[in-house]
Amino acid sequence: MGTWVLGLSLGVAVTGALVGLICIRQSTLSVTAKFRMVWLTAAAMCIGAIGTHLGTSVTLLGVGVSGGTIHYDLLRRGAALVLTPVAVLAALLIVGRTHKLSRLAVGALVMGLGLGGGNYFVLSALEVQGTISINPAIAVGCTVLAVVVAFGLLYAMRLRATIALSGVAVLYAAAIVGTHYLALSGLSVRLDPAMPQPGGQDLFTVFIPIFAIGVMSLAIPITAVLVAPDRAGRLQPEPKKSKQRRPRAPQQSRPTGSRRREPVG
Predict the structure, then answer these.
(1) What's the mean pLDDT in 172-201?
(2) Where are the domains of the chain?
(3) Which of 4, 79, 102, 258 is most deeply buried (CB count within 10 A of its CB)?
(4) Please, are residues 90 and 150 in contact by the beta-carbon 8 Å criterion?
């Protein structure tokens, strides 16, 4: 497994997560519920479909078995592609704008189960001339880690600075790719020449179109953020009002030549 695979995977995951977090930030500036829903949907697609599903799918470029070929079941791959962004969107709607701990916990649970389920579908989509088994303990552990990662991401939604969101995106990408590698370590492959050839499609037939569409689709939310009105002014703190000094009342000047009378006594 080359380092370029890991680098590409992290790059895709960071980009998708960062654009998604910026879309979430933009949703807080929406005046109507309709536009807020549009921004949250875009965020769910960026984080779930691109930052998570596509980012972890890149790692499969470095996966192979000696003496055999790996194919992928399109139905399970499609299920993973749909489940992940749906879970992210559901979590964003559950959390809302309140950022209450109870809502964060429920949203993290929903999103984490979706990420863990999507990861399981991706791994179960692998087909070889033989059998593939997934270690159940590692699968459960990866799901628990996904819940923790989801809680951290949802908690960071309150951040507004782009630099801070960039740091969150890097941490999310590292955690989600690391969780996927942990799940890959739980795979057990046994080749059997007596079994029929695997069905499905090879990785490049499945991966290349999805990768191209996913990367190009990032241009839509990025352009929307750049052209959104008041995107900069409304995120800056309001300037402090300077205290205005009250003008002093003009002193009345006494007429020239007038003398102050001294009391007689």
Answers:
(1) 87
(2) 3-235
(3) 79
(4) no
